[in-house]
Model the fold of this input.
Amino acid sequence: MVLCFCPNPSIDKYMWINSFEKGQPNRVSKEESYPGGKGVHVAMGVKELGIDVAILAFWAGEEGKWVKQQCESKGIACYGPMIDGSTRTCLTLKTYDDYNETEFLGVGPLIKEEDFLAIQKEFNNLLDKVDVVSFSGSWPISAVEVSYNQFIFRSNELKIPSFIDCSGQSLINALDISPFCVHINHFEGHDLYRTNPTEAVNKIIEKCQLAVVSCGADGLYLTDGRKIVHALSRVDKVLSSVGSGDCLMAGLIVAFSKEYDLLDTAKLAAACGAANCVRIELGMFHKRDVDHFERVCETRIIN
Done:
């Protein structure tokens, strides 16, 4: 089973507005809500590709119950404590002007010490059922110090491969304890190393066994430390790119679970990211789209 650790799930809401007027009332023509948070998107992608998956998260208030119910309705087991407060809402604008796909990312509930201890205990209890664990996204505001490090360290102790996708200090801290796989986008790579994607992926692989830098419409760079593969699945018409990095992460995990070689891993990961772009649902894809983008994926070995 794959376990997706998502400390900060969300309700992802699309709002369609013809044009966004600053400082004025804006009438919404349509809205849709989806279960969200980076780890939730990863889990939905893994499930769509036919691998057993579960989510570990903090679930807060009626909003948290709704996200949990939506995931469970897709056959994804959900674990983690119900806590005080409200699971966050993240809003994406769909407009016909420059504000299209502007995102407003909610805060989430306050994590107390007892909440952190509860999720730590549940994580440890689940590890005897887990083959791969992923860690994705930000943490909510916390009254205690929180990080992925102790969870990655415990996974390493049990030789359970850990896949991580985060940024900032969380990423820097995680690199110090050598997760199995690290995925970042090219903006994060530039912030961290002040260099281009191929150099960034070479830097990251010094800290892990599999490294990926995704570059949006320019595809991804994947390395195992011996060679770098560039993979690109071209998308003619992008409906939404929100969550494509999480879908790419799902492809990486499934490829690893199925023991794909480096080239086929890159193809599947790129295809999953592209497949997300041709559906309006936030952070979701359909396997038949993935199959198409795998077939047309362009790959080349850098070295």
